[in-house]
Amino acid sequence: MSVPITDPRDRLIVALDLPSVGAAESLVAQLGDAVTFYKIGYELGFAGGLGLARELIADGRKVFIDFKLHDIGNTVARGIASLAALGASFATVHAYPQTLRAAVEGRGDSALRLLAVTVLTSYDEADLRAAGYGAGVEETVARRVVQAREAGIDGIVCAPTDATRVRTLLGPDRAIVTPGVRPEGAATGDQKRVATPFAAIRAGADHLVVGRPIVAAPDPAAAARAVQAEIAAALAAS
């Protein structure tokens, strides 16, 4: 049984999509107590971001390592074991059955929560067809959610537009994490399946990943608090 998340700050995950540790440290300092949860992906991770992850965890922050692992089972299991030892809260793998099973094995009895990536939020029906998939977005997401649930994965990463159906398939006690979240009026960039923070929470998301609308804002802390206010409003309306 998952523990209810009562603080809107713990539902917002700020994506540290920045080119250097120095830039990320500067943003973290600007955000201060406004943010408790950070995501580190390829860009920062490959620029020394795992060291920053250790510092954030030591400082009491939560860290989501978003490397979307997908490789032979042994490699995935060992990589996940290393992230568990780091003290990360979340880590992502692609939702392929062999990869899912290997990740669960690598996680062992640690506190690391594994998230399965279904279909990237930058993909639509045409992108799946171009990649050779016979099924569309909805069918592919549904199949991967069921496979992830059966493998013992702790949650799903999906577009906010998929969250309602994913919640039905996943059940109430596992996490739904949604990127592709854009406050009203914000540029969508390369995202194709997006929703506002309010709509994403109402659709069933537990955590929202927000990058550019906060990272590039003139006042990142104010932008983060605005997202959290939408989260609080959505929870109050539930």
Structural commentary:
This protein is α/β, with parallel strands linked by helices. It has one domain (8-237): Aldolase class I (TIM Barrel), CATH 3.20.20.70. 46% of the residues lie in helices and 16% in strands. It is built from 10 helices and 8 strands. It has helices spanning 21-31, 42-58, 73-86, 97-107, 125-130, 137-151, 163-170, 197-202, 212-215, 220-237, and strands at 12-15, 37-40, 62-69, 90-94, 113-117, 155-157, 175-178, 207-210. An 8-stranded parallel β-barrel has the order 1-2-3-4-5-6-7-8, surrounded by 6 helices. The longest helix is centred in the last third of the chain and has 18 residues, at 220-237. It is globular. The model has no long low-confidence stretch (mean pLDDT 90).
What's this entry about, in short?
This protein is an alpha/beta fold. The chain has helices at 21-31, 42-58, 73-86, 97-107, 125-130, 137-151, 163-170, 197-202, 212-215, 220-237, and strands spanning 12-15, 37-40, 62-69, 90-94, 113-117, 155-157, 175-178, 207-210.
